[in-house]
Amino acid sequence: MNCLNQTCNSTDGKCSECIDSWSGDFCDAEEQSSEGGDSGGGALIPAIVGAVVAVVVITAVIVGILCWRRRSGAKHESRDGSMIEPTVETGNTYSNPALDTGKPERPSRPQSRQSKPRSVIFAKAQEVDDGEESEEDKESESSENPYTNILTDDTSVPVEDLKAYLHQHSTDSHFKDEFMAIPMDLGQDQNHGVAARNSKKNRYKNIIPYDTNRVLLEVDEKRKLADYINASYVKGYNDCETFIASQGPNDAILNDFVRMLWEQNTGRVVMLTHLVELGKIKCTMYWPEDGEKTFGEIKMHLLTTQVFSEYTIRHLRLCKGDESPRDVTQFHFTAWPDKSVPENPWGLVDFQQRVMAEPGHGRLLVHCSAGVGRTGTFIALCNLLKEAEATGKMDFRSTLHKLRQDRMHMIQTVAQYTFLHKAALVGHMTSGTNIRVKDISAKFQSLEGGASTDKSARTYQQEFDDLAAVCDEDTIMPHKQSDGAEHVYGNEKILANKGKDRLSNILPNNTYRPILATEVKNEDDYINAVLVPNIKRNSQDILTQLPLPTTVTDFWRLVTQFKVGLVVAFDVDCRDTDESIGDFLPESDNNPLKNGRFEISSTTVSENSAFKEMSLSVQKKGIKGPSTSNGQHDLTCLLCKNSTLDPGSILEIINKIKDCRSSETCRTVYMCRNGAEHCGLVCIQSILLDRLEVDQCLTVPLVVGAIKAIRPQVIPTVPEFDVEDEVGNDDDDDDDDDDDDDDDDDDDDEDDDD
């Protein structure tokens, strides 16, 4: 930097004075004799920017690209660390060739009349209410900003290199450097937002929309309705104002928020926060819990609610006077933890694909609490996937820069920015893999390698290779632990748990492990099991290994403490020959099993070629302690027969599982010898068929990926991946038969009506 005293304007990067031999607004033109060179064209990129670009350009060898359209092999990679970091901003030196030449790439916005000291901007980054959940709104794309030097170098990443790119920078500061290179606040006017009359309308005093692209409400002086709301238009990949990024409404703007939905003719709303998090109100409820509710002149009716494990979809109808009603679909993502990022990207990608598949009028409105962190991350994901579809590349740094041109603080933390890369990888890989019911048979034949006119058609082997590689837990969700054993416990307890694992390479990640309550002195809380979602509830069901002789008590602790209503067990036929399988069931109906504090009795209900159904009663002996629930626990157990584990048998087992579940809150344990292979297959297939029934759509990669992110060893081979589609296809055929029967019934009904 050639500014005198090494100082420059913190807002536009210009120097007030230059050191000797240098001139220009940015002191980037060397005063020396030259033959007619353009002074603007000689701008120098600062060393720090050049270093960042250099790291981006060197994108590592293609180890195994995980996209669904282009396949290459991949190897497992080492675990890297993921940290949630506070929003930090440092001063940056700007060299701006576009301003020097007077030829900006796009029409620039009006310049701010008030420059903002960098110290103030830094303070704002820290003010966002306890880090503002570190994940707020996510908006995307373009709008011209004077600091075009940030975009002078190509930082885009080809999609086929994306996985290698993530792995290359998993242990360095590259993502943090990129994140901090873009100012949180680009210094544009915010006069309306900071006006005293609007102060109560801002949920956070430091998150204010820019004047140039704020959403203006219709003014009604008689009703004292002003035009201000804390919301911004945000551009999509194609530079159209595709989104509205908004704060979650507070009490002061509740009616204004609903008025914005009406006036902007919004057909889809994405909500990325809970109403209350960590005891703090993050958003005021702007829809009726049931029936209808009036907001000013607008009545809102709740038509339907669909609850899924990681999101809820509400269909709303807005009515105002004599005008035609307008329908709005609200997509509420409920799996974004407080002050963190989702544990893995699969749920958010599933959610994003659901949102984008819904036809809707008007701009897509996205909000969290402040409307910047989570909101910015979501919008960036949408834009990056559009960019990948159009160009085969993703430019994360450019996307971040453009977002912050439209709204300050978009993507608030390094953790969010890092997570965005993982979500974009999964999003691109799974793009176009959802199969409608009517297309299942054709897709099934294509995946089997049958005749196809589509040159991009992939086989099961290709899809499985891509899925297996991208599900490498080290790539998708790096953890702080450097040793796989640390997934079980901290180093101080590894030895204590060593005898509780059948296989040393199938260990539970602490993030998903059910923690057992200790009921006696010196009892441990560990069991080799993981919590997995079902279609309705997150962390609802359990995958675990068949008990070892030393873990039978732990298994029944799991059953009773987690209120398990159904156990689906595989590999039980091996008990006579495999000494590593403990006796966890009675030998016969008349011979109860006694194990420590538990006594288990059984009654055989039915048996066929696929499974044996048993009714179990678990009696726990009295144990002192407030955490203990004594008494009787009843449940159902299905002992599945592996020799007939074909698609037809799996379908029969799954139908029985549905019958045995007493309610949506009934927790199911899936278990097999290694706690992954057979039990994981049926668990996944159960979710797939539930989704098929609800959505009329088969979502194999998303469902398989979500479970493999928790238990990477599920679906270890191509044949099992093949079975997922086969069962879906068989179920589709059954549905077709049912439809035919329904048609016949309809005909009979019509005859009766006649």
Automatic annotation (TrEMBL):
GO MF, one annotated term: protein tyrosine phosphatase activity
Chain ranges of the Tyrosine-protein phosphatase domain: 175-427, 460-721
Record's keyword annotation contains Metal-binding: no
Family matches, as PROSITE patterns: TYR_PHOSPHATASE_1, TYR_PHOSPHATASE_2, TYR_PHOSPHATASE_PTP
Bias kind Polar residues: ranges: 89-98, 145-154
Biased composition (Acidic residues): 128-139, 721-754
Catalytic activity: O-phospho-L-tyrosyl-[protein] + H2O = L-tyrosyl-[protein] + phosphate
UniProt EC number: 3.1.3.48
InterPro entries registered for this protein in UniProt: Prot-tyrosine_phosphatase-like (IPR029021), Protein-Tyr_Phosphatase (IPR050348), PTP_cat (IPR000242), Tyr_Pase_AS (IPR016130), Tyr_Pase_cat (IPR003595), Tyr_Pase_dom (IPR000387)
Residue ranges of the TM segments: 43-68
Source organism, top-level taxon: Eukaryota
Entry-linked Pfam families: Y_phosphatase
Composition bias type Low complexity, residue spans: 109-119
Domain Tyrosine specific protein phosphatases: 349-418
Keyword annotations of the record: Hydrolase, Membrane, Protein phosphatase, Receptor, Transmembrane, Transmembrane helix
PANTHER family for this protein: RECEPTOR-TYPE TYROSINE-PROTEIN PHOSPHATASE, TYROSINE-PROTEIN PHOSPHATASE 1
Name of this protein: protein-tyrosine-phosphatase
Classification lineage: Eukaryota, Metazoa, Spiralia, Lophotrochozoa, Mollusca
